[in-house]
Design brief:
alpha/beta, 6 helices, 189 residues, 8 strands, three-stranded antiparallel sheet
């Protein structure tokens, strides 16, 4: 996938994994930038696929994805519990009450018997993952419980706060769309 912009390397890697079907196997991907490496690693992590990265040069990486025989195919992934946050407040009306309700909701997620598979932050919700966020401690608890925390990179760029991201990883709209399309349950705020 040399010379291919993101998300093409991720899409092609996913296709190669799908071609393996229920069989165990390896997929080797050659990319020329760190962004593609990180995005493929995130995809593999979300699918519980071990990954090894070898840096050949400053602009060449080999990514080895090791799909075990018991790996669930994408069409079987239906038990995920994903929450997406498009704003900093919960509900309409009084913003102060909305902020308190959002903090309470995120805290409540830490107390559930099963933590969400993933939290996705976009638009105004990206401020919940930055350094000044009042919910960072609870987001860290969720991350420690295995919840993947992802924030839209285009939104961080739009608000010029990418350097203030304090938790989780940066994602893109293709990955968000794929996550929502394959999740068993999606809750949106």
């Amino acid at each position: 996938m040399l010379g291919k912009p993101c998300p093409i390397p991720v899409i092609e890697a996913k296709k190669a994994l799908q071609e393996l079907g229920d069989e165990a196997g390896f997929v080797e991907v050659l990319v020329d930038n760190q962004v593609a490496v990180e995005n493929i690693k995130k995809m593999a992590k979300g699918k519980h696929i071990p990954v090894e990265v070898t840096e050949i040069s400053i602009e060449e990486f080999i990514i080895l994805l090791k799909k075990p025989v018991s790996q669930v195919t994408e069409s079987q992934e239906t038990s995920e519990f994903v929450v997406i946050f498009g704003k900093q407040i919960l509900g309409e009306g009084n913003p102060e009450l909305g902020r308190m309700m959002m903090q309470s909701y995120i805290y409540s997620l830490t107390e559930l018997p099963q933590a969400p598979t993933q939290l996705i932050f976009f638009h105004g919700g990206v401020f919940l993952t930055n350094q000044d966020s009042p919910v960072l401690e609870d987001l860290q608890k969720l991350a420690n419980q295995g919840t993947q925390i992802s924030t839209c990179g285009a939104c961080l760029d739009f608000f010029d706060i990418k350097e203030q991201l304090a938790i989780g990883d940066i994602t893109n709209m293709y990955t968000i769309s794929l996550t929502l399309a394959t999740a068993g349950k999606v809750i949106s705020f």
